[in-house]
Amino acid sequence: MNEWLAIFLLGIVEGITEFLPVSSTGHLLLAQQIFGKWIQPQSDLFNIVIQSGAVLAVIPLFKNRIITTIKEWKNKETQIFITQIALAFSITGIGGLILEKKGFTLPETPMPIALALLIGGVLFLGIETWLKGRPTTEAITWRIAVAVGLGQLIAAVFPGASRSGTTILVALMMGLSRSMATEYSFLVGIPTMLAAGGYKIFKELTDPIEGAPAEDWGMVGLGFLVSGIISFITVKWLLRYVQTHTFNAFGYYRIGIGLALMLVILN
């Protein structure tokens, strides 16, 4: 397989899965496992950059919400909403820095990712069953903000859990509607992932021991561009989808992809 085509495919995988509650990490790993003969393992810097492309691309989808929030920042309700996003962001950021200082490292084997996909799928199906007939709210509470911040931290510790999947799950459990849970997850996720991505890119480029990794920036740029375009299309679709559908399809899909990844690992 042509290496440029491989990068193009990885960009598509990242763009589709970054904001869907299905784990981009798990899918990139599965792609590497399946197409390992043709796709060379990519550097952490490459993965961070294409993730950043996916994140930046969805900002225009929330431009009206962002502009309105900026214009109405003196409004008490708007100030509370901004503070709730900042609270969730801070919990994740501070927690992540503490874990890094303590020397926490992510699992190096793919099996935990497969298990996280599987467990997340079961939880989605269970929560959707539990939610039937129960009232939901559109109001973000302080408890929800704290829970979403902790959810992001959990997803960072357990690759395969999915940042969007974990945060949407905890928001649903606390009574938030599907559409608002999805929107709030994304609004919190954008600054969180951009900050994390910027921090990681800075560390990669200024590593005092290994130095900046040698990259083909043309390929990195292609991955960045493709993931961004696909991410924009995917998120636009998802925001409409959750207006009239449950997350059951994602639950079944996570179970299926988790089992598929296990089979690939065991074979």
Structure, briefly:
It is built from 11 helices and no strands. It is mainly alpha-helical. It has one domain (3-15, 23-32, 43-266).
Head-to-tail CA distance between termini: 23 Å
Radius of gyration: 18 Å
Give the count of helical stretches. Answer: 11
Main sheet properties: none
Strand residues, percent:
under 5%
What structural class do the secondary elements suggest?
A: mainly alpha
Elements, N to C (H/E): HHHHHHHHHHH
Q: How many domains comprise the coordinates? A: 1
- Uncertain stretches: none
Amount of helix: over 70%
DSSP, total strands: 0
User: Mean pLDDT across all residues, rounded?
Assistant: 89
Query: Judging from the principal axes of the Cα atoms, what is the shape?
Result: globular
How is this fold's topology laid out?
Layout (H helix, E strand, L loop, with lengths): L2 H15 L6 H11 L9 H14 L5 H9 L4 H26 L9 H21 L10 H16 L5 H11 L4 H28 L11 H28 L3 H19 L1
Helix pairs in contact: 1-2, 1-10, 2-11, 3-9, 3-10, 5-7, 5-9, 6-8, 6-11, 7-8, 8-9, 9-10
